[in-house]
Amino acid sequence: MRTKLSIAALIATTAVAAPAFAQSQEQSFNGSHAEVIAGWDRVNDKSSYDASKDGVTYGGNIGYDIQRGSTVFGVEGEVTGSTISDRSSNVLTAGDRLRVKAGRDLYVGGRLGFLAGPRTLIYAKAGYTNAQFITDYDSPATATAPALSFRQRDNYDGWRLGAGAEFKLTDKVFAKAEYRYSNYGSQTNGVDPERHQIVTGLGVRF
């Protein structure tokens, strides 16, 4: 009798635990997450002579996901910097120097994903981006003009589209790979920038 009761208790415990385990697996992409990202960055000015510069983007991302079955809905925000910098000399006068550098880039948007496996999420994303570009100019003093030096910060509003894959390394730790395209439209100063990026990330879910 005791053996039968023990077996019945074990079956009952397993029946209760199994749905909870299955639910934890199904809900594995739920909740908040934070990550560090880095990757390839290219800024292209389509308006003038199709000038482009390559560099490295780096920064952080935070977000929140809700999973319903095999579908994941999420919102996220991101702050990144870039190593992109373009230097020129003798632009307006002999001996002057001009540098245009990519500054901080802010992003907020949403994503929609589908499970491609128990630990793999494929997703697309879209949202708003605001990129800053910093211009430094210096010119030496001449017989007719004093030395000149100034810094200008330009903020460009735009939109971003992207797609990627997220892989769970453990229940809490994940890695991702992502491509995204950003477009900032025609600006009043004649600049028409766009941006291509391929990034990888390492994050935690909590």
From TrEMBL:
Entry-linked InterPro entries: Beta-barrel_OMP (IPR027385), OMP-like (IPR051692), OMP/PagP_B-barrel (IPR011250)
Pfam families in alphabetical order: OMP_b-brl
Subcellular location: Membrane
Keyword annotations from UniProtKB, A to Z: Membrane, Signal
Signal peptide residue numbers: 1-22
Domain Outer membrane protein beta-barrel: 8-206
Family designation: Belongs to the Omp25/RopB family.
Name of the protein: Outer membrane immunogenic protein
Provenance organism: Sphingomonas trueperi
